[in-house]
Amino acid sequence: MTDEVEILCRKACNGEHAAASDLVRMFYARIFAYLRRFCGNDDDAADLTQKTFGKAWSSLNSFQHRSSFSTWLHGIAHHVYVDWRRKPNRNEDRSEAWWEAREAESATPFEDTAQKDMAHQLYYWVDQLEEEQRQAVHLHYYQGLSLNETAEVLGIATSTLKYRLKGALEFLRSKTAEPIRHQEQL
User: Fold this and answer.
1) Is 100 inside any structural domain?
2) Is this structure's pTM higher than 0.85?
3) Is 74 part of a structural domain of the chain?
4) How many angstroms separate the CA atoms of 43 and 51, rounded?
């Protein structure tokens, strides 16, 4: 897939709209799912995904292939999300309706979980993590980026990323040792 993406990037840089469309088709669902998990609803996620691809296309000529296209695109999505979060009134709590519709269409680490209640609780607990840990978990585990790619997207050292993931996993392990609570009790 890497060779195909590189070819499409070169063609898109040369103004081939079909190549740009192919790149969107390849990456739209992953970027949308990433942003949806953070912002909490489809409308905001769709807007942020559009902004991400808009910024990507306007700066595609500056893509220097020092990282994979996926890493570069996730970095743009991350910055678009951070900018969006800085705007006022973005810290509202998530509603019951959000929890019902929270699952993205793309695969997550929890889709194979045998019990839906446990998956629900894990999503809830991940949302309880500090922002930096939550971003690391989303990029590394939900989006499947390598440690190096995740660290690059977040602009931190790999050792810092490992520290954040370790803390997040310790928190999640401590929570999975507790009895499962149902939604009504949250």
Assistant:
1) no
2) no
3) yes
4) 12
- Classify the C-alpha dihedral 50-51-52-54 as positive or negative: positive
* pLDDT attached to residue 92: 55
Mean pLDDT throughout 111-139? 76
Say how far apart CA 35 and CA 56 lie, in whole Å: 15
**At which residue do the structure tokens 């559009």 appear?**
50
- Same domain for 121 and 70, yes or no, is no
Q: Tell me the C-alpha distance between 66 and 153, whole Å.
A: 12
- Domain count within the chain: 2
- Full residue range of the structural domain in which residue 153 is found: 107-186
Decide if 34 contacts 143 (C-beta within 8 A): yes
Both ends of the chain: CA-CA distance in Å?
42
Give the whole-angstrom CA distance, residue 161 versus residue 167.
10
Q: 161 burial class (0-12, 13-18, 19+ CB within 10 angstroms)?
A: buried
Residue 60 shares a structural domain with residue 124: no
Three-state DSSP class for 19? Answer: helix
For residue 58, the number of C-alpha atoms closer than 13 Å in the C-beta half-sphere is 7
pLDDT one-digit tens code per residue, 19-40: 888 888 999 999 999 998 888 7
Q: Which of 94, 116, 147 is the last residue of a domain?
A: 94
> d(Cα 86, Cα 104) in Å, to the nearest integer?
24
89 and 111, same domain (yes or no): no
